[in-house]
Design the sequence.
C-alpha cells in the first residue's frame, strides 16, 4: 500500500465505558458501530465489509442489516482490530471492499453475553504452562519482566512510573475509569498480584466498545468527513505461550510490526508527535518504546520516570490513560486506535497541541502478536 | 478444585512417559543438532526436518519468573508461588515451578543453577526444578 491511499472516516466508542451491566458483548458492538457510522455520516447500506473477532462479524452484519462481500474474523488477542484495519485497507486498495466497519464490544467486567477465556488441556498452554498454576493473563504476561529488568537495568520504581505517568493523563480525561493522581509509592504499596506487579501496574477490567469505518481516500473526500490517513502499518506473530518468547528482553513481534509501519510510511520515530502503546501491564509500554525505536535499549524506564511521556513531555504516550487507567475491556486494542485517531483529529480529551502524525501499537496474547499503525491528518 | 493435568497428544507422549519414569526428554533437529521445546513432529529449524528424542541432563538455570499472589484454582495451598521459566543446559526454555526453597524474591535469583525433579500428580509426573546446590 502507498501511504495515504486509505483513510479512517468514522471512529467512536460506546456511549458508556466502565461498568455497563445492562449491555451484552453484542450490544456494545452495535452501540459503538452505530456511533462510528454516524460519525462517518454513513448508514449500514454503505458498508460492504465487516471485521471483528470470532463470530461477531456475522452477528454485527446481521444485526445492523449489512450485506458484506468481505469478512475478517482474525482473532489474535487485543491487537486483533489492528490486523482487521490493516487487512481492510488491503481489501479496499484491491477492490474487494469499498467501506469497512471494524467493531469491538466486550462485557469484560460484567460478563454479559460474553464467553470466558478457555483453552484445551491438550494444547501448548494446557500441557506446558497451565499445570504449573497459571492464573490468567496477569500471571502469564508478567513472566518475562524480571529478565527484562535485569538485562536492561530497569528498576521497580521505573516500572511503577508507567502507571503514574498514565494516571496523569487519565486525570485530564473525564471518561477515564481511574482519575485520582497516584505516586510511585502508591503503586509500590498497592496489592501484589504477581510479583513484581502490583494491582496498579495491571490493567483495569471494564465493559465497553469501539468501532472504526475505513474507506479509500478518494471516497473519503466525497464524504466531507475529517479523514485520518493511514501512512503505514505492520503486523507480526511470534510464539503462542509466553515461555517460548524467543527473547524476554525484546519482542520480535513488536520489532517486526513497528519496522514495517515505519518503512511503509517512510518515517522514523523522530517524525512521531504522539504515541499509543497498548498497556495491558506496566512493562508493555517499556518494551514498546525500545522495540519500536523511540528510545535505545535500556532507556525506557528512565525515559518514562523522567516524565517524557507525561503531559508536557516530548513524547506524549497513552494519553487517554491507557489500559491501566482509562479502560480495558479485555481486547483493549480498539481503544488505543480510538485515542490515536482522536489525537490526530485534534479532538482528544487531553489533546496534545499540534499532533499531525501519530503512532499506535497493539499487542495480542503475551507479546505473541503485534500490530502497528502510523496515522496522519494530512495526505503525504 | 484439583490442580490441572496435562492431556498428552501423540507428539508429546514421549515427554510425559519420560517424566513418569523420572527423566526429562526433549527433542533436537537431526539436521542441525539444535534442541527445541515443546515436542513436535518436525524441526522448527528445517522445513519438514526430522527430529529425535534425547534425554536431557536435567541441569538448568533460572531465566525469569513471577510470584503469583492470586492463585489458580487448585493452587490455594501453595500461594504465593513462582511461575518460573528455566533455561535447560541444552538451550530450550520451559515453564515450571521451583521447589525445595521458599518462593521469595530474595531466594529466587536469576541465573541460579537448578536441577530437575518431578512432582507426582494424579498418576502423572511434572518436571519441576530445585536449587542445584542446597541453599
Sequence:
Amino acid at each position: 500500500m502507498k501511504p495515504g491511499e486509505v483513510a479512517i472516516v468514522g471512529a467512536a466508542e460506546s456511549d458508556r465505558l466502565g461498568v455497563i451491566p445492562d449491555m451484552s458483548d453484542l450490544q456494545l458492538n452495535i452501540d459503538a458501530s452505530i456511533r462510528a457510522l454516524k460519525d462517518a455520516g454513513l448508514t449500514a447500506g454503505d458498508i460492504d465489509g465487516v471485521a471483528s473477532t470470532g463470530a461477531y462479524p456475522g452477528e454485527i452484519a446481521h444485526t445492523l442489516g449489512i450485506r458484506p462481500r468481505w469478512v475478517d474474523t482474525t482473532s489474535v488477542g487485543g491487537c486483533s482490530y489492528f490486523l482487521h484495519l490493516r487487512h481492510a485497507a488491503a481489501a479496499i486498495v484491491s477492490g474487494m471492499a469499498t467501506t469497512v466497519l471494524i467493531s469491538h464490544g466486550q462485557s469484560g467486567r460484567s460478563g454479559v453475553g460474553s464467553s470466558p477465556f478457555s483453552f484445551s488441556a491438550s494444547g501448548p498452554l494446557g500441557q506446558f504452562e497451565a499445570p504449573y498454576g497459571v492464573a490468567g493473563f496477569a500471571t502469564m504476561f508478567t513472566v518475562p519482566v524480571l529478565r527484562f529488568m535485569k538485562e536492561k537495568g530497569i528498576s521497580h520504581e521505573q516500572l511503577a512510573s508507567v502507571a503514574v505517568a498514565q494516571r496523569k493523563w487519565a486525570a485530564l480525561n473525564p471518561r477515564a475509569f481511574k482519575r485520582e493522581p497516584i505516586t510511585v509509592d502508591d503503586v509500590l504499596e498497592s496489592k501484589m498480584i504477581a510479583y513484581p506487579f502490583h494491582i496498579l501496574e495491571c490493567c483495569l477490567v471494564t465493559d465497553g466498545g469501539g468501532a472504526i469505518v475505513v474507506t479509500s481516500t478518494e471516497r473519503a473526500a466525497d464524504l466531507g468527513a475529517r479523514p485520518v490517513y493511514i501512512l503505514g502499518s505492520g503486523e507480526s506473530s511470534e510464539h503462542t505461550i509466553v515461555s517460548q518468547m524467543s527473547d524476554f528482553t525484546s519482542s520480535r513481534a513488536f520489532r517486526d510490526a513497528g519496522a514495517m509501519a515505519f518503512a511503509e510510511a517512510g518515517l522514523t520515530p523522530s517524525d512521531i508527535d504522539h504515541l499509543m502503546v497498548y498497556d495491558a501491564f506496566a512493562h508493555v509500554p517499556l518494551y514498546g518504546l525500545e522495540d519500536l525505536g523511540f528510545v535505545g535499549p535500556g532507556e525506557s524506564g528512565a525515559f518514562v520516570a523522567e516524565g517524557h511521556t507525561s503531559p508536557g513531555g516530548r513524547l506524549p504516550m497513552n494519553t487517554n490513560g491507557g489500559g491501566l487507567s482509562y479502560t480495558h475491556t479485555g481486547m483493549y486494542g480498539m481503544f488505543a486506535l480510538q485515542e490515536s485517531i482522536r489525537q490526530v483529529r485534534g479532538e482528544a480529551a487531553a489533546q496534545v497541541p499540534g499532533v499531525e502524525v501519530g503512532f499506535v501499537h497493539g499487542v495480542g496474547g503475551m507479546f505473541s502478536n503485534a500490530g502497528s499503525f502510523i496515522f496522519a491528518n494530512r495526505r503525504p | 478444585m484439583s490442580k490441572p493435568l496435562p492431556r498428552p497428544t501423540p507428539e508429546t507422549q514421549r515427554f510425559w512417559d519420560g517424566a513418569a519414569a523420572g527423566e526429562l526428554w526433549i527433542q533436537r533437529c537431526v539436521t542441525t543438532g539444535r534442541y527445541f521445546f515443546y515436542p513436535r513432529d518436525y524441526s522448527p529449524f528445517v522445513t519438514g526436518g526430522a527430529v529425535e528424542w534425547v534425554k536431557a541432563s536435567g541441569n538448568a538455570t533460572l531465566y525469569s519468573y513471577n510470584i503469583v499472589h492470586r492463585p489458580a484454582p487448585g493452587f490455594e495451598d501453595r500461594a504465593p508461588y513462582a511461575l518460573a521459566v528455566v533455561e535447560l543446559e541444552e538451550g530450550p526454555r520451559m515453564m515450571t515451578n521451583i521447589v525445595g526453597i521458599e518462593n521469595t524474591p530474595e531466594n529466587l535469583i536469576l541465573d541460579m543453577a537448578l536441577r530437575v525433579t518431578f512432582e507426582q500428580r494424579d498418576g502423572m509426573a511434572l518436571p519441576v526444578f530445585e536449587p542445584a546446590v542446597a541453599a
User: Anything to note?
Assistant: The first strand of chain B starts at residue 25 and ends at 29. Helices of chain B lie at 13-20. Chain B has a mean pLDDT of 97. The longest helix of chain B spans residues 13-20.
